[in-house]
Amino acid sequence: MAHEASRAGMIRNVVVIVALWEIIGRLGLVAGGALPAPSGILLQLWADRADYPQHVLATVSGSGLGFLIGNVVAVLAGLIFVLMPATLRLLRGVNIAIFALPPIAIAPILNLTLSGMAPRVTLAALGVYFVTMSATVIGLSQYDTRSGDVVRAYGGGNWMVMRLVRLRGAVPDVLSGLRIAAPNAVLGAILAEFGGGGRWGLGSYLLGSLGRGDPFRLWGIGLVATVIAGLSYAVFAIISERVLGTTRSVTLNTAIPAPASALSPIGRLALACGAVLLPFVAWWAFVTFTGVPDMIAKTPLGVIDYLFVGDQSAIARQKLIAALAETLPVAFVGMVCGLGFAFLLAVLAQMSPAVIRAVMPIALFTQTMPLVALTPLLVLLVGRGYAVTMWITISVTFFPAFVLLVQGISRVPQSVLDLPRAYGATAWTEMRKVSIPAALPYLFAATRLTVPRALLGVMIAEWLATGTGLGNLLNQSRGYLDYGMIWTVASVSVLLSVAIYYAVLEVERATLKRLGMQMVE
Amino acid sequence: MDRRQFLGTGLAGLALTALPIRAAAASPLAMQAAWINDAEFSGYFLAIDKGYYPENGLELTYLPGGPDVIPESTIIAGRADLALTTPDTTTRAIAEQGAKFKIIGAQYQKSPHGIVSLKKNPIETPADLIGKTVAVPPVNTMTMEALLKVNGIARDQVNIVPYAYDPTPLVRGEIDASLDFTTNVPFTIGTLGEEAHSFLLYDHGVTIFNDTVVVTEDVLKEKRGDLVAWLRASRRGWEENLVDPAAYPPQWADTWFAGTGRTIENEIYFNTAQKGLILSDAGVFAMTDESIEHNIEALSAIGIRATRDMFDTTLLEEL
């Protein structure tokens, strides 16, 4: 019953938003009419209907295949990481590097080394891997140890615990991972198409349409991309709604988790070194095995040579430092804002679920609307200053953080919430004393998740709107055929993401240890 | 060259000598275009449709470009044999990175790049750019810098912002001008209810070609005959296409131009506007000594040490 009421509320909210949008569009209130009315977009969509099927088919098949491959690898990897925690430590560097790879930097490289559909499938797969892998690891490690104790008491081993408790317990987490991953796959595929030079795909269509100055067409393409992403999101949201009821604990586990497996200091050191070295080994292997000539594909040594040894290295360093000084402060502020916004909304959503219904459609829309189409509009709205960078950064960081935080807050068992309620606490006290502390591990996880996205958001804004910083440097270097700089920017941005990730991790470890909570991987 | 390829070319060579030319096995050749399918590449589409490449013993693979496709990269990686490039990037890569490229022809005698503004707020000369905001595609930053340098304007006197090939900011007055193909964007500006004003960079000291036909030295050595055949077939395609620029684009609405999101009227405008930039008394793709000299001068003004030996005119001479 409540369920139906909530659905009706969702529909009502969407109707209100669309009606408002129509009025704003008709009256040309936003950016001198650059935001078109939905009716006009639909009319243009109908006029272009013959163009769409082949483009949609290309995008759906590319992103679908990437989604499948990326997720199968991610779930298997998550399983292995939980069964053998040493592998997680060893591959942490690789995992974060994959997540932090800026798609705008690797799209041209993928387009060069792979052919046909492979670049878009790879970019889509890379876009989903990290999200699903971390969701799987979270799900498998955040299980109720008491259920495990029951299985063990009856003679079950690790594998039985895995099969009967942890795998089942992980299902909602994996599903929420897939939910975030689905739009990522679509975006990855579109981004690769945008630069790939293929004939078909929504990205290629968008590119051809950009020069027409026709906002109806651009928004139509954005709308179709959004619908594809939204449908894939909805499928997993519905499945997860059906599944969640069976796996929630009824009471809170009060056992403090045992410290991680005791490793000798030498073993730890070896793992840490391995984690640092492995991404470079993988990079080296990729460059070697694809057989792309040295001039285009730089190995780690090639980058060091470019940046510190070669005769142009002083100029290269100077350019890089100037770009970093422009990019980093904005990325930091944007990340804090996006995260704060997500946290605020997640808390609000828990206190009044109507908020989540009002915000979700907008959040999903901003998330899946191709940034290449959204950015020109944002430029007309807020200009080419820091504001546009801020907006884009918040929009790319907000959504994954929000989903993760809502997940964390909603997983607090009912009985724990009953306690403050029995003592007459207000909803806010309940939130403050129970839900927010319980969601703390998720806030940290969300922060780590947001770091590379913030950097990426800033770079996209710089590339398309402001013409400053790392994003612009990357794009200009392509014009100069300065492959050394392309690889340098890509590797420096990954290294930075990893460094900040570890800084957050240290704070997280200290805080959660003090509170006796388990870390969310 | 691996064994199979070696055998393949060997057999093709045998076949070529043993059989009448009409039945010769076609040798594969791949070309990388500079952009997505539009009128800029009409000559090739026509030559493909009319079978001029097979007639010249070629089996052509045509690869469209896009904003992330760096044509030079495609030939370095060996995924295409020849690419259409901008000469400033190519010559700079040769001079500064030791890239082994040769320019064997030029589609545009005069680059279509120009400064496009609105008639109601026209930018008539490079000097008018001072204090204005100009949108430039980041990959063309060098070309813009060339214009400023040649005309004695300091880089910081002009506000350069990134350009995403969307004329909306120009029409809305958010920017004052853009660096774009003068053969293309004025049409769109017209459909948006404004009138465009433009001048060619070529007419203001940036005397360079565009869509230069570039190959690696290795390909030049191994496939010289095929490259000459490509030039011959492509020249024929271009000449035929430019006789009546309005004739062919409509025929490609459902083939080459299907699903690009652009209109056929736009392609006809483009095809018509580029006619004077492509045709040359010395034939399509020509690189006369005089025009090469102009290129070298303009490039040296922005610090690119272009030299005469980067341009190989001997293939054109065989046509």
TrEMBL record, chain A:
Gene Ontology biological process terms in this record: transmembrane transport
**Does the entry feature the keyword Transmembrane helix, yes or no?**
yes
Instruction: Tell me where it mainly resides.
Output: membrane
- Which compartment or compartments is the protein found in? Cell membrane
A GO cellular component annotated for this chain's UniProt record is: plasma membrane
Could you confirm whether the keyword Cell membrane appears in this record?
Answer: yes
**Domain ABC transmembrane type-1: start-end pairs:** 56-240, 324-504
Q: How does it sit in the membrane?
A: Multi-pass membrane protein
Keywords, A to Z?
Answer: Cell membrane, Membrane, Transmembrane, Transmembrane helix, Transport
What parts of the sequence cross the membrane? 12-35, 55-83, 90-110, 122-140, 216-239, 269-286, 328-349, 361-382, 388-406, 485-505
| Stated family | Belongs to the binding-protein-dependent transport system permease family.
Q: What is this protein called?
A: ABC-type nitrate/sulfonate/bicarbonate transport system permease component
TrEMBL record, chain B:
**Coiled coil residues, start to end:** none
Q: Which reaction does it catalyse?
A: N(6)-(pyridoxal phosphate)-L-lysyl-[4-amino-5-hydroxymethyl-2-methylpyrimidine phosphate synthase] + L-histidyl-[4-amino-5-hydroxymethyl-2-methylpyrimidine phosphate synthase] + 2 Fe(3+) + 4 H2O = L-lysyl-[4-amino-5-hydroxymethyl-2-methylpyrimidine phosphate synthase] + (2S)-2-amino-5-hydroxy-4-oxopentanoyl-[4-amino-5-hydroxymethyl-2-methylpyrimidine phosphate synthase] + 4-amino-2-methyl-5-(phosphooxymethyl)pyrimidine + 3-oxopropanoate + 2 Fe(2+) + 2 H(+)
- What are the recorded GO MF terms, alphabetically? metal ion binding; transferase activity
UniProt keyword annotation of Metal-binding present: yes
Q: Quick one: which pathway?
A: Cofactor biosynthesis; thiamine diphosphate biosynthesis
One GO term under biological process is:
thiamine biosynthetic process
**What keywords appear on the UniProt entry?**
Iron, Metal-binding, Pyridoxal phosphate, Signal, Thiamine biosynthesis, Transferase
Q: What residue range is the signal peptide?
A: 1-23
Q: Specify the SsuA/THI5-like domain's residue ranges.
A: 40-246
Read off the Pfam families from this record.
NMT1
* Self-association state and partner proteins as the record states: Homodimer.
Q: What's this protein's function?
A: Responsible for the formation of the pyrimidine heterocycle in the thiamine biosynthesis pathway. Catalyzes the formation of hydroxymethylpyrimidine phosphate (HMP-P) from histidine and pyridoxal phosphate (PLP). The protein uses PLP and the active site histidine to form HMP-P, generating an inactive enzyme. The enzyme can only undergo a single turnover, which suggests it is a suicide enzyme.
Family designation: Belongs to the NMT1/THI5 family.
In Swiss-Prot or TrEMBL terms, this protein is called: Thiamine pyrimidine synthase
What is the organism of origin for this protein? Amaricoccus macauensis
